[in-house]
Amino acid sequence: MKVCPDQFVDSSCRVYKDWDDFLNNNQLPNCTYCYPRGGVYDGDDNDQVYLEFGTTPAAKPGSLVCSALDTASTVVMVSSAGSGVCVCVCVFCT
After folding, report:
1. Which of 3, 22, 59, 69 could form a disulfide with 8 if both were Cys (CB 3.0 to 4.6 A apart)?
2. What is the DSSP code (8-state) at residue 60?
3. Are strands 51-55 and 8-9 parallel, antiparallel or unpaired?
4. Residues with Cβ < 8 Å from 73, sequence gap 6 or more?
5. Cβ proximity of 30 and 60 under 8 Å
6. Looking at residue 59, what is its pLDDT?
7. How far is it, in rounded angstroms, from Cα 60 to Cα 26?
8. What is the pLDDT along the chain (94 residues), one digit of tens a residue?
């Protein structure tokens, strides 16, 4: 019998290799969210579920800066297009 490692699938059917991969690379919007500790629902002897809270990768400072730059570059391109000037702004964030 082949043993498969745990994989996590989000509501958009994206597959993550493990729980840490989900926490660090999910595509959820900027928010604070509640999740089961370790990615698996488990409880104590009193049936209390162990939960944790965190923020999505989109809420991290680097992502917020990239989002602001992306919005600013879009405004510049739309404004420039309206005045007949072509300006190309490329922002790459990791």
Report:
1. 22
2. S
3. unpaired
4. 89, 90, 91
5. no
6. 85
7. 12
8. 666 677 888 888 999 999 999 999 999 888 899 999 999 888 899 989 999 999 999 888 765 456 555 655 565 455 555 555 444 444 444 4
Half-sphere exposure of 19 (CA within 13 A, CB side): 9
- Provide the token pair at 64: 């917020």
Q: 41, 49 in Cβ contact below 8 A? A: yes
- What is the C-alpha to C-alpha distance for residues 84 and 94, in angstroms, rounded to an integer? 32
| DSSP per-residue string spanning 13-43 | --EESSHHHHHHH----S-EEEEEGGGS--B
Whole-prediction pTM: 0.58
Half-sphere exposure in the Cβ direction for 90 (13 Å, CA):
1
